[in-house]
């Protein structure tokens, strides 16, 4: 119970505020105090760091849940502030980025007169079976994602910068239109029907696997826990990011089932991004669970996509 | 993504290779310019000027693909994706348009594009090479960060004009396009693609140009008080 006065500075060294807090307060409480002083910077937008030490490029980031005393802060200590920009909830971003594809793709299926002007499209009941299955699968996939956003996923971070919303939506909406355009094209050439049926049946298995992976991940932490845990059970016993494995296979099967290059490009783009995320997560878990000082050792596992990664 | 290594002090074999690469490109583009000027001396036939330079430009542009690999392997501190897109832009203008549609060679923008590229590269590649050798003279750094102010806009306008003038040929000759129906349900209308690119060009180009402007204000600003140390450091980074 020690009252301390912290010097909150901008990166250029200008003092923004002198904040009186208790050393047992959390960083989160410190942020609320600063928000009270400056209404523009709500806590989600604040990044606070210690000044950089010798040899460091930048100082340690202060975690919201940690106590100020844990960082050795005392009266007169300098804390650096950075504005992260306008923030938006993760779940809001996810909703908008998934709602787009959910709506955009079926537009191409149901309204060919708009998207393929001047070309004769078959009436809905005469369309190739693959086109019907594909639109149903696609919509199921994105409806599932929205469901998971609100009922399954537990987010590590609460918010992200708002410019990510535009970047992410461009990606999802763009590819939705790109894939939908070719699969629903009046001049679409359907592959062998049996092949398509088998592919989509397997793809649905992937969807359920992916869902199971997501529930396992969301159950890893009890509400309020922030520590990293080693995922286990189901495919996680063999693969760090088993959810990505199921997701990628789902799209590979969609591509083969529809025989559409555009779907292949979409699959490749997604796989490429997921590989980056998976490598980061895998490395983080290996570094954290190094087997020393009583910690578990992270088991030998594939990163995301055996036998390639 | 790029590790913060000191690229100008990397392993001698890597630096040696890069110095060689930059030398080849620097000399190559000088030869391209020389060929253009020599053809221009003989007569103002734009097509001959272009063809004289393109003998070199084709190979140099082809070889420049290596820079994507340099960035990808990390021996050069640059993004492989950015490099790839820039390479693609130039390759498109040179191979698909200037070379692929010979009628365009009679336009001023064809040889002008080569000349502007040559002038720019004759400065840029030697600058990289000499940086690696820690032997870059201040005047070359000055040129590097000032010549682009004129060359860049001229270059991009020539490229855009070339693309614009090439559109009718793309359509009438159905160049570089895929049509449906086909087994893999893919179509690519090159003319539409180029029209979209023409809209994006100024935006993409500005991103590049403004980052050079920022580098310029950093590198050419050497406060007198800090003296020699700052000026030397200004030539060393990148």
From TrEMBL, chain A:
Its EC number is 1.3.1.93. Pfam families: Steroid_dh (PF02544), TECR_N (PF21696). Coiled coil: none annotated. Residues 4-81 form the Ubiquitin-like domain. Signal peptide: none annotated. The keyword Cell membrane does not apply. Pathway: Lipid metabolism; fatty acid biosynthesis. It is an enzyme of class 1 (oxidoreductase). The keyword Lipid biosynthesis applies. CDD domains: Ubl_TECR_like (cd01801). It is a multi-pass membrane protein. Keywords: Endoplasmic reticulum, Fatty acid biosynthesis, Fatty acid metabolism, Lipid biosynthesis, Lipid metabolism, Membrane, NADP, Oxidoreductase, Transmembrane, Transmembrane helix. The chain crosses the membrane at residues 90-111, 170-188, 194-213. It is found in: Endoplasmic reticulum membrane. Belongs to the steroid 5-alpha reductase family. This is very-long-chain enoyl-CoA reductase. It comes from Tetradesmus obliquus. The lineage of its organism: Eukaryota, Viridiplantae, Chlorophyta, core chlorophytes, Chlorophyceae.
From TrEMBL, chain B:
It is found in: Endoplasmic reticulum membrane; Membrane. The chain crosses the membrane at residues 149-167, 187-206. It is an enzyme of class 4 (lyase). It is a multi-pass membrane protein. One of its GO terms (cellular component) is endoplasmic reticulum membrane. Keywords: Endoplasmic reticulum, Fatty acid biosynthesis, Fatty acid metabolism, Lipid biosynthesis, Lipid metabolism, Lyase, Membrane, Transmembrane, Transmembrane helix. GO terms for molecular function: very-long-chain (3R)-3-hydroxyacyl-CoA dehydratase activity. Pfam families: PTPLA. Pathway: Lipid metabolism; fatty acid biosynthesis. It catalyses: a very-long-chain (3R)-3-hydroxyacyl-CoA = a very-long-chain (2E)-enoyl-CoA + H2O. GO terms for biological process: fatty acid elongation; sphingolipid biosynthetic process; very long-chain fatty acid biosynthetic process. Its EC number is 4.2.1.134. Its main location: endoplasmic reticulum. InterPro entries: Tyr_Pase-like_PTPLA (IPR007482). Belongs to the very long-chain fatty acids dehydratase HACD family. Catalyzes the third of the four reactions of the long-chain fatty acids elongation cycle. This endoplasmic reticulum-bound enzymatic process, allows the addition of two carbons to the chain of long- and very long-chain fatty acids/VLCFAs per cycle. This enzyme catalyzes the dehydration of the 3-hydroxyacyl-CoA intermediate into trans-2,3-enoyl-CoA, within each cycle of fatty acid elongation. Thereby, it participates to the production of VLCFAs of different chain lengths that are involved in multiple biological processes as precursors of membrane lipids and lipid mediators. This is Very-long-chain (3R)-3-hydroxyacyl-CoA dehydratase.
């Amino acid at each position: 119970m020690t009252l301390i006065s912290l010097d909150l500075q901008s990166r250029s060294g200008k003092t923004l505020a002198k904040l009186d807090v208790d050393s047992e307060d959390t960083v989160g409480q410190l942020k609320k105090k600063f928000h009270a002083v400056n209404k523009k910077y709500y806590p989600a937008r604040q990044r606070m760091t210690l000044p950089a030490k010798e040899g460091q490029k930048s100082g340690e980031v202060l975690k919201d849940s940690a106590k100020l005393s844990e960082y050795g802060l005392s009266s007169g200590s300098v804390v650096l502030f950075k504005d992260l920009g306008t923030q938006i909830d993760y779940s809001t971003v996810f909703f908008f980025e998934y709602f787009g594809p959910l709506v955009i793709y079926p537009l191409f299926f149901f309204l060919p007169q708009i998207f393929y002007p001047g070309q004769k499209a078959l009436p809905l009941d005469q369309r190739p079976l693959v086109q019907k299955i594909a639109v149903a699968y696609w919509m199921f996939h994105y409806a599932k994602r929205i469901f998971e956003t609100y009922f399954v996923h537990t987010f590590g971070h609460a918010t992200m910068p708002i410019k990510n919303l535009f970047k992410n939506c461009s990606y999802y909406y763009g590819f939705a239109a790109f894939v939908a355009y070719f699969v629903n094209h009046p001049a679409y050439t359907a592959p062998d029907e049996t092949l398509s049926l088998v592919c989509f049946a397997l793809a649905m298995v992937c969807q359920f696997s992916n869902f199971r992976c997501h529930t396992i991940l969301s159950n890893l932490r009890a509400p309020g826990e922030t520590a990293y845990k080693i995922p286990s059970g189901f495919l996680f016993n063999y693969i760090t990011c088993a959810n990505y494995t199921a997701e990628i296979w789902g799209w590979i099967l969609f591509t083969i089932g529809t025989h559409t290059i555009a779907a292949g490009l979409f699959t490749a783009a997604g796989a490429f991004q997921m590989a980056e995320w998976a490598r980061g997560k895998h490395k983080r878990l290996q570094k954290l669970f190094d087997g020393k000082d009583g910690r578990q050792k992270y088991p030998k596992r594939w990163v995301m996509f055996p036998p390639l990664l | 993504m790029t590790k913060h290594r000191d690229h100008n002090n990397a392993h001698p074999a890597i630096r040696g290779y890069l110095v060689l690469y930059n030398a080849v490109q620097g000399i190559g583009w000088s030869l391209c310019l020389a060929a253009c000027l020599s053809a221009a001396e003989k007569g103002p036939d734009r097509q001959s000027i272009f063809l004289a330079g393109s003998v070199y430009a084709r190979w140099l542009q082809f070889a420049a693909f290596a820079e994507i690999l340099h960035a990808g392997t990390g021996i050069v501190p640059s993004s492989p994706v950015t490099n790839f897109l820039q390479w693609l832009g130039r390759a498109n203008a040179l191979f698909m348009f200037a070379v692929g549609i010979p009628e365009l060679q009679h336009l001023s923008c064809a040889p002008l594009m080569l000349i502007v590229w040559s002038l720019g590269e004759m400065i840029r590649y030697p600058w990289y090479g000499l940086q690696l050798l820690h032997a870059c003279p201040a005047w070359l750094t000055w040129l590097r960060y000032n010549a682009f102010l004129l060359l860049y806009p001229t270059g991009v306008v020539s490229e855009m004009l070339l693309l614009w003038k090439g559109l009718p040929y793309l359509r009438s000759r159905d160049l570089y396009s895929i049509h449906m129906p086909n087994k893999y349900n893919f179509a690519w209308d090159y003319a539409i693609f180029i029209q979209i690119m023409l809209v994006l060009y100024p935006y993409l180009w500005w991103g590049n140009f403004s980052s050079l402007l920022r580098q310029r204000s950093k590198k050419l600003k050497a406060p007198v008080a800090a003296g020699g140390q700052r000026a030397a450091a200004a030539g060393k980074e990148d």
